[in-house]
Amino acid sequence: MPHVPNTAIEEMLRNADPQSAAIMANILNGTIVANIYCLSQDVKSKREVPVLDDDGNPVLFKSGKNKGQQKFETEEYLEREGCKGRLIGYIYDNGQVEVPKDKDGNMWLRSTRKRLDGVVGCECWCGNDSRIAAQEAGDIDFSGAQPTREGLNNIFDRVRKNPTVIESKNGRTIVDGFAFEEIA
Ligand SMILES: [Zn+2]
After folding, report:
1. Which terminal CB of the chain, N or C, has fewer other CB atoms within 10 Å?
2. What is the distance in A from the centroid of ligand 1 to the CA of 39?
3. Cα of 69 to ligand 1 centre, how many Å?
């Protein structure tokens, strides 16, 4: 648990609305049972960029059928930076989730959702998102609409036939791009 001075905690609880204060008190009194890590990788893409000369001016074809037109070249660039194992959240014994700040003050875990296959789905600000299980896709979305009874039956049917693959490695449970590390 990140170290927070007691005076800061008391101040925070005093100024919070009753519901938030209750949640915070729960978290503060609870025990962390798991760390959440985001495993997203860098996403690289290619794009066409104009070729520039030493003065920064576009280079043109001097001859041939493209004479007078700009030259372009293919460049690889980082479209999305991956978290690559970044610690993004703590799960407490009461199920509450706390989001720590990184050294630059950023919080990465955007939201979580208990999926119907039993897994905690996560959404990270990097774009990595496991909130909807493959078995739920098509019958549950982010519109806020409740799944129909038929939809729920479909989901449970799919979960029964194809349970979610949970990979365990070095004390970590890995599901859909996020790792959960249980703490003894
Ligand atoms: Zn991430």
Report:
1. C
2. 7
3. 42
**How many A from CA of 85 to the centre of ligand 1?**
8
Q: 36 alpha carbon to ligand 1 midpoint, in Å?
A: 10
Each of the 184 residues of the chain gets a pLDDT tens digit; together they read: 444 556 666 676 677 777 666 656 656 667 888 999 999 999 999 999 999 999 999 999 999 999 999 999 999 999 999 999 999 999 988 788 989 888 898 999 999 998 999 899 999 999 999 999 999 999 998 887 888 899 999 999 999 999 998 888 888 999 999 999 988 6
In what helix (H) or strand (E) does residue 58 lie, and over which residues does it extend? none
CA of 102 to the centre of ligand 1 (A): 12
Query: 43 C-alpha to center of ligand 1: Å?
Result: 12
pTM for this one? 0.71
Domain-wise residue ranges, the chain: 19-42+81-182, 44-80
